[in-house]
Design a protein that fits this description.
Length: about 90
């Protein structure tokens, strides 16, 4: 997990449980997502169902970059996109 921080040059590793046996790589800075994470996966495409998840993730990021999350209709669209994510993942 630590190598993700080195690869992307951002983010942090956080324990999901008290025992520490489950960890998450979390990027909180929006510019890191748009300038590092998304370009990485555009250059190194995911395969299968995860490619659809990435397309949804990227669509939400683009909407947020345009400020859509600050309007009721934009936020509703983002919620609609989110509702179709992480469904039937292998």
């Amino acid at each position: 997990m630590q190598s993700l921080i080195k690869i992307f040059g951002c983010g942090g590793i956080y324990n999901q449980t008290i025992s520490g046996n489950v960890q998450d790589f979390i990027v909180t800075k929006f510019s890191d997502i748009t300038d590092k994470i998304i370009p990485f996966f555009e250059a190194n495409p995911l395969q299968g169902a995860k490619s659809k998840e990435f397309a949804n993730f990227k669509e939400v990021a683009e909407l947020m970059k345009e400020g859509a999350h600050l309007t009721y209709s934009g936020l509703s669209l983002i919620k609609q996109i989110k509702s179709r994510m992480n469904k039937n993942i292998d």
